[in-house]
Input
Amino acid sequence: MGDILEFKNICKSYPGVRALQDVSFSAKSGNVLALLGENGAGKSTLLRILSGDVSPNSGKITINGEEQIYSAPNDAIKMGISVISQERQLVPSLTVMENIFPGAQPKTKLGTIDKKKLRSESNAIIDKFAMPIDPDDLVGRLSVAHQQMVEIMKAYRRNSRIIAFDEPTAPLTESEINVLFGLIDQLKAEGKIIIYVSHRLAEIFQVTDEIVVLKDGLLVSQLTTSQTNENELIKAMIGRDLGDTYANLKRNDQIGDVILEVKDLNTNKLKDVSFTIRKGEVLGFAGLIGAGRTEVARAVFGADMISSGEIHFDGKKVTFKEPKDAIKAGIALCPEDRKDQGLLLFRTIRENVTMPILSRIKSGLFLNKKLERELTEEAVRQYTIRTPSINKITRELSGGNQQKVILGRWTNSRNSTKLLILDEPTKGIDVGTKAEIYQLVCDLAKSGLAVIFISSELTEVINVADRIIVMQNGQITGTVMREEATEENVLSLAMLV
Output
């Protein structure tokens, strides 16, 4: 008989927020159970309770009927529980093998670390995951996708009986996702309990056996995956039928003059990149991971060095030595990694929204607190940021609300943004909030903003952008208008040999 994990009457509240209310469900050995719900539904809170990172106000977790009591997160690891969270728990200054075996490196007879054995055992795991990395590579120099796989390898090495994945595929390529799904199938066959959190509904149907749906901290339903469908799940998650999300978008039909022209741009990752974008236009960038889309954004924003080429912005030839030059000119970037690069997670919503415009909201030597509050409240209203207070710590917000804070920062009435670059703006965001962001992008374009929209999800870039630039290996391979775009013709340009 296999293991049974039970959440019994779990309640958790934070000041002004009820995160979970009387949540009860079970997961069994050899099954993959999906946790599904909008951002803020309570999924991550449940996983943090499972990992021992936070304690519930009431309720308990049992394994095979025995209550699990933690005094620290390491207790959960000792009990055979691994939670792979969105916030990676790796040490960038250590090697891959040191991160796979934290505190458990094999020792020699003299008590020193057996580097040869550590390297050999790490190589065996890396080979199993088919990763093009070396045990001696520093984790801090790996891509986000490869760091994610190191996190998963660390959990796999522990041979845990319960493994929870929180948005594991967000940074991964298609081939890496296939490797992960093969591993999950193997873990099922070994009798592990797998909990899987993802906003990608196609993955839910591909990899899970059961689905628990949460909404506003409450359990809505527990379903058998094979006996439900996408529409039923969306209704359960958001309480309404989204209809045809893209057909309902109110788009801008008054596209203006060219605001940005890039000519023969070259960096260490880009080759002869040329394009234009107009005021009020949504310009999509598509391509496989590593194609160079983010590198274009960083080069235009002054974050990466340009070896040759020209950038003309708002009628002038410009040279941005660093991002603050681009910001001053009217260019803003919402980066792909919003937690590490886009936000001050331990600062408030108010501080994050007004950070770039502090010099504009001063009264003499001091901040105009009234204006600071009004601008933040304006952003909260405009983007429907779910928060009890503008002084809430940003780390405590859901991913969708964090993304809205970044949008509010760059588009408030005291900002001078003319070009907004959105790099993977819907990554890790639920279907309801995605629909909101699509319309927000169209609304910003209608206000006259030029928007660069970078996404790995072909369906959304095809349906949101007015025009799509396709890249491969640092080069542009084609441009497609939305009316002519299909997944097939965009993908064929992304995979040109």
Observations:
- The chain has two domains: 4-237, 243-495.
- The two ends are 52 Å apart (CA to CA).
- DSSP finds 17 helices and 22 strands in the chain.
